[in-house]
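Appendix B. Raw example, untouched.
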Amino acid sequence: MKITTGNHYLAFVLDEECRQEVLKYWTASHEVIKCHHVTLAYNFSQEDIPRLQDLVDSNPSFTISYLVKSDVVDFFRVLVNGEVLETDSSSSHLTLSHKSHAEASYSSRVIKGEIPHDVYPTLGMDLTGHFELIEKKNK
């Protein structure tokens, strides 16, 4: 996959079998079920492309580290090659579910400490999927 700039962001998208396996082990607490992708870079420039391309080309591993639950959003912290990957807008995570009035981006607000939450250990499941450039929703 070739990384380009544009109205999109870089994500690791779970394949359907992996998504169903995650949903089988952890019940979503909120009505909007996500469990779709790990965002790796949201706002990136031409200067970021070599670093992102190296990441994609290295075929990294993605592993669920722990579950984070709040009143509005639940998500998993995800390790990339055994480490939390700091992104331009947050750090590596997989949103499980959120309230209908919230958005998946509330996960980043929890990570930044803006929303109270609890942390729970998990099985350390490896994630399978593929890289994708996902079109941004213009608001």
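End of appendix B.
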